[in-house]
Please model this.
Amino acid sequence: MYIDVHTHSGLKQSQGVIAIKNILIEEAEKLIPGDEYYSIGVHPWDTAKPFFNPDLPADFFAKPHFVAIGECGIDKLQGASIDFQIFLFKLQALLSETHHKPLIIHCVRAWQEILDLKNEIRPKSFWIIHGFRGKPELAKQLVNSGFYLSFGESLINPKPGIVESFSQVPLNRLFLETDVSSHPIEMIYQAASLIKNIPLLELQRELMQNFEKVFGIYGTSRLASTN
Ligand SMILES: [Zn+2]
Model:
């Protein structure tokens, strides 16, 4: 069983893949929930759009098919002012606490802000940094501060720095994702198992345990294997 913790793909998942599909609030309003999982939130890039509406429909976040809040975060290269991004991020972090759902975080050059906010909020819900490509020291610091780190296609033909960063992250704090990649999640797992030098099955088992713990969703792997 493969867990794709963050994807923007609207395609139906292949068998044996559990994906968290990221959708916009506008899309969520029209969504007819099936048996798939979604994350819902305000992407930092969207905060600067001309008709951006910062009112978050709080009742949405309680719905069971929305299993995570996000992706949300802080991006110093795009989006609205940093103060406004921080305001919105905090709002979503608090929603993640209220609804006991993990937070999927997009962070560009705002690591100190994210670390400070985690210290300030002291969340009980889990915080996942998605698409991590940072330096090994940063990976270590984030792991020590309780974050989960999710890696994507950068593991395929990786740069030496990525290999080193990836090695800093223990299996019990790790996720994998496709995000906007055209590579399938299976390929990212293959790459990860080679770098970690562990069998694919062991990697799958570990990440399934992380999924169950972080998202509070149990029994999906048993269901999948009896299909
Ligand atoms: Zn994304």
